[in-house]
Amino acid sequence: MGKRTADQLARQGVDTAGDLLHLLPRRYDTWGELTDLAGLVDGEQATVQAQVLRASSRRTRSGRPPALMEATVTDGVSTMEVVLFGAAGLMSHHADQLVPGTTVLLSGRVGLRHGRRQLAGPRFQVLDDLDEDEREALLARPVPIYPATDALPSWRVAKAVRTVLDQLGPEDVPEPLPEEVRAAHGLVDALTAWRWVHRPEDAGQWRAARQRLRHEEALILQTALARRRAEHESTRTAVAWPVPGPDSLRADLDAALPYRLTAGQERVGEEIAAALDSTVPMQRLLQGDVGSGKTLVALRAMLQVVGAGGQAALLAPTEVLAAQHRSSLEHLLGPLARGGMLDGAERATRVHLLTGSTPAPRRRTVLAALAGGEPSIVVGTHALLSESVQLPFLGLVVVDEQHRFGVAQRDALRERGSVTAPAAPPGSQEHRTPHLLVMTATPIPRTIAMTVFGDLDTAVLDEVPAGRSSVTTHLVPWQREAWVEGIWRRAAREVAEGGRVYVVCPRIDVTDEPQADLARGSLGPGTDEPDPAGTEDLLDALGEGPGPACPLAAVTEWAERLATEPALAGTGVGTLTGRMSPAEKDTAMEAFACGRTPVLVATTVIEVGVDVPEATMMVILDADRFGLSQLHQLRGRVGRGDRPSLCVAVTGCEVGSPAFHRLKAFAQTTDGFALAEADLELRSEGNVLGAAQSGRRSDLDLLRVTRDARVIEQARGEAEAVIARDPRLEQHPDLAAAITERLDEESQAYLEKT
């Protein structure tokens, strides 16, 4: 490459010939059918063959763009103007190409300037060196379009790629795909794939090339995962906790439950029990929609460990959720959590709570009990990651809402929990890796990508326990003031019928912002209410456009407003935020649950785990500020009893914006798995092998999790077969080299941890 081109390519991370081949076209265009100049219509996309009459380049007075090239072309009957914009050097180069008398192929959108037809910024190809057959072939051939910048246009990337391709032979191109894999799927070889993806003769060639490269990408990633998993299984062992029998702590829990387990809970429970009864450390993702009974499944798994003399830890992202989990576990356990006597034999477990706010005396007591090896469950936040927390018989780590923890955090507790088995002889130094169970209600894109790519086994709860009510979702535009007013009359009705109402705001206060415009959330009298069947109407109403820009809704502001709202006269209004002390949070939740303050204005501190069966209405203000996962979790705080519930999302977003599509998906389904797929489509997979969470950058060139699940699943089986036969990949050197080249040290470490 010339220095200028090489420098520009380097800015895109392209330093080697291999890097350049991996810089794939974004799409493929065709020249299309030729059109006479006289038949061109303003605004149409057209391709013409013409001869240059004149051409010149000059700098612009404004310097934006720095230069332009103007030319006049003719087809022998009519003439047309052509204008190209760009850097001065580029325009000078184009002028040298388009000398008078040159025959060119031009493709672009037709415009009118001073009443004359014009092509502005067209793609062009000089035809003088081509015979008639070559010109026909050119018209039919797909034209690769590369990611481009002003300094490095697509045509220059294509020229650089041609320079590399023209020098390559079969011996120059690694072949990561084993021959049996290529034969099984009818895939072309590597060199053919690179030639066809960059210089296809027809659409069939670039499609076949991309299919081969897509499968190659899947196999490389899956083999990396399979090799790490095999190394993990061969170098790390766990304690095998026996499957509980009829005379066990878990059996006592099952017998004491006032309801039967769902078929899904039984099935998943058996899968997890079998995995815990193995010396291979379990790494399992428990997926279940909001209210599907994940906590009970996790508790039964923890009792399998605790009942055999081990310890279990449940890691929660917030103190509110940790306290809620502790309360839920003790409620489920009943007498088993209080050291009760069952059939004359004491079979019970203690549930400890350990957070950053645990009082020092209580903290010392808990730490001493855990360090002494007491068979028990400890629920906590990041405080569990402290070096002072010793769990000598830790057999199972449960991570709730795992997307809120980094792999390093999750790994810290698990690594420090590499423990001595309870049955090991005194003084034994035989350490075992705890089993791992991570739970999530609405998988975010990274979670789905990790799951489909196979570094976690999956267990799915696809049923909702009996007694759960349905939740109806409405969208309300801020600019429909009467509809906003109607929300609070509906809230008053819910409270009058014994319900509870959450009102969620994206901020705590507005002290650093101007006062919000009262018109946006007017609380005066009105007659209209959201139509229970009007979700589509509400979406249409957003088409009126957003109102004037206003500060985001804040807890302090809206608590004051609702306290004086006529429709809620006499109704207690409480608040809950992350800035409150643990005691204040407990008091606020207790007042809400018992009905002293049946309207609770809160931040997303109540997003997960908060369980108040009487709650029947969720109002989310400025809902466009939240992601799909948050919205779904917030909606999951209602509908936990036997009364029909509703969720109202208030928004001022513009129609067609990403937030609009997010809210539309949210309103159309309560299925968490469907929302996860929608989230993935909206945000892309994210960085599958690194720390990034959103879809700004992806390690996936061609693979897409939602589209290519079948290819990924095939590659997973093939990768496992390769590793089973050749664990060190000594017989597959090109595949081993591709893994090394593809995965940097950070990604390798990520795989090691997971």
What is the topology?
Blueprint: H1 3-11, H2 17-21, E1 27-29, E2 45-59, E3 67-74, E4 79-86, H3 88-97, E5 103-113, E6 116-120, E7 123-126, H4 132-140, E8 143-145, H5 154-165, H6 179-185, H7 190-198, H8 203-235, H9 249-256, H10 263-276, E9 283-288, H11 294-306, E10 311-315, H12 319-333, E11 341-342, E12 345-346, E13 350-354, H13 360-371, E14 376-380, E15 394-400, H14 407-416, E16 419-420, E17 431-432, E18 435-440, H15 445-453, E19 457-461, E20 471-477, H16 481-496, E21 500-504, H17 535-541, H18 555-563, E22 573-576, H19 582-594, E23 599-602, E24 615-620, H20 628-635, E25 645-651, H21 658-668, H22 672-683, H23 709-725, H24 733-742, H25 745-753
Parallel strand pairs: 4-6, 9-18, 9-19, 10-14, 10-15, 13-14, 15-18, 20-25, 21-23, 21-24, 22-23, 24-25
Antiparallel strand pairs: 1-8, 2-3, 2-5, 3-4, 5-6, 5-7, 11-12, 16-17
The separation of the N and C termini measures 41 Å
Give the structural class: alpha/beta
The biggest sheet, with number of strands, parallel, antiparallel or mixed sense and barrel status, is:
7 strands, parallel
Mean of residue pLDDT values: 81
Rg, nearest Å:
32 Å
Shape: globular
Helix share, percent: 25-40%
Runs in which pLDDT lies below 50 for 5 or more consecutive residues are: 340-345, 425-429, 512-548, 691-698
DSSP strand tally: 25
Q: How many helices?
A: 25
Q: How would you name the oligomeric state of the polypeptide chains in this document?
A: single chain
Strand order of the largest sheet: 13-14-10-15-18-9-19
Task: Name the beta content range.
Answer: 15-25%
